[in-house]
Design brief:
With 416 residues, the chain is an alpha+beta fold. The longest helix is centred in the C-terminal third of the chain and has 44 residues, at 273-316. It contains nine helices and 18 strands. The strands form four sheets. The chain has a five-stranded mixed sheet with strand order 3-2-1-4-8. A five-stranded mixed sheet has the order 11-10-9-12-13, with helices on one face. Strands 14, 15, 16, 17 and 18 form a five-stranded antiparallel sheet that branches.
């Protein structure tokens, strides 16, 4: 798979094409555990926004399966939020009410997502990013004409923060310059203590405990970005910063599932081959099941026909004395087998799929039947028996219990 990665900055765009090699099981399982898959860089460069469509047309010489976008930090609203909740489902419900208090416009005008910064017994600390739908649409609208599906949208700076935080031990200040903006993050080990978005002419404010000038300061930048550096006259504490050469375009395609912004109504569809493979496997399994079912039915029919032929031959024998009595017994046995077979066949056709019978008691003389078994829903078994047309006066003959996640039932009924 060839992936186009775009790192969008204020004054330029860095692009790169990567070939991602999947494991043999990817088309079935995907990459659920975020294992690092082999990625090979094919081409890279940088361009201006107005030149991007023509650049992409030139890149199409390499077949491109999808593109992933990294947007600049200043496009997002960011908040570090403490909630007395730990469940992701509960947080998603409560987060909209929290953002309603913090965002300048109604929350339904934004797309937002979050990642966990810390979990405690009392709750969670979250990093939440939100972006206006209108702004995101304006960014990706010119890319629709390229006919390359957008498979992911994230924030480049937070991707870099998470990448560094995983390896950080101690106190760390991260600074990144993007045109007239400076992005600032303060880390304590792997925990993000503060995020700042400031302009170059503003004073830098640090959270408590990070004013010590001995704390290392880092300017994170791609090899293709050549900023002029932070102003030494304005802040002596960042005078001797260390430069880390990161590759944001590669980090973007390795971004975890959190902090992704790709709504169905804005992004182009991404055709995931796993859906086709999963569908083909499911269809094959259904066909095999049906063929197995038909084969079992065919074998039962052949056995029944063979038994019937034997009974017919015996009936044709002219018997006298004890032989007549033996023939009568054989006829009765034949009728008994036929009735039993019909009852079992009716059960087989009637019971819902997934129902397991552990006991079947048939009283042919009194036309009574009692069954015992397990099913995910005993009520669905009762409904199926009542609508079969073969049984009547169906009732529970024992208490319903639950075993291994299934209901154990016992029904008594009359045979029509």
């Amino acid at each position: 798979m060839n992936i186009l990665s775009l790192d969008i900055r204020q004054n330029e765009i860095n692009y790169a094409i990567y070939r991602k090699t999947f494991s043999p099981l990817y088309f079935i399982t995907g990459n659920p555990f975020a294992f690092p898959l082999f990625i090979k860089e094919i081409k890279r460069g940088n361009t201006r926004w107005e030149d991007l469509p023509s650049i992409i047309e030139g890149l199409k010489k390499e077949p491109l399966d999808c593109m992933i976008l990294g947007l600049p930090f200043y496009k997002f609203n960011h908040h570090i939020i403490d909630l007395p909740l730990r469940s992701e489902k509960e947080i998603k419900t409560a987060l909209a009410f929290e953002l309603e208090k913090k965002l300048p416009l109604p929350v339904d005008q934004y797309l937002y997502n979050f990642t966990f910064l810390k979990k405690t017994g009392q709750g969670s600390t979250l990093l939440c990013l939100s972006i206006r739908k209108e702004h995101l649409l304006n960014i990706i609208e010119p890319l629709r004409n390229t006919a390359i599906p957008v498979a992911g949208i994230s924030c480049t700076f937070t991707t870099e923060i998470i990448h560094i935080a995983r390896k950080n031990r101690g106190r760390l200040i991260m600074a990144q310059q993007d045109g007239e903006y400076i992005y600032l993050a303060c880390l304590l080990d792997s925990e993000i203590k503060a995020l700042r978005l400031i302009r170059r002419d503003e004073e830098i404010e640090y959270p408590f405990g990070f004013q010590d000038p001995s704390i290392p300061a880092y300017l994170l930048r791609s090899p293709n970005i050549k900023p002029s550096g932070l102003s030494e006259e304005r802040d002596e504490r960042l005078k001797h910063y260390q430069t880390i050469e990161l590759n944001p375009t590669e980090l973007i395609i390795k971004t975890p599932k959190h902090l992704q912004f790709i709504p169905d109504d804005l992004a182009m569809p991404f055709r995931d081959i796993r859906l086709k493979v999963a569908g083909a496997i499911s269809g094959t399994a259904v066909i095999i099941f049906l063929l197995t079912d038909l084969l079992a039915l065919y074998k039962e029919k052949r056995a029944y026909e063979h038994f019937t032929n034997l009974v017919s031959e015996i009936k044709e024998l002219r018997s006298t004395g004890p032989l007549e009595e033996r023939s009568l017994l054989i006829n009765r046995y034949s009728q008994l087998k036929t009735d039993t077979f019909n009852i079992l066949s009716a059960l087989r056709r009637t019971l819902p799929r997934g129902t397991i019978l552990s006991s079947v008691n048939i009283d042919i003389q009194n036309r009574l039947l009692e069954i015992e078994g397990r099913s995910s829903s005993s009520s669905s078994v009762l409904q199926a028996l009542e609508s079969s047309g073969f049984f009547k006066n169906i009732s529970y003959s024992g208490a319903i219990t639950v075993k291994e996640g299934k209901e154990v039932f016992r029904f008594r009924m009359e045979i029509k």
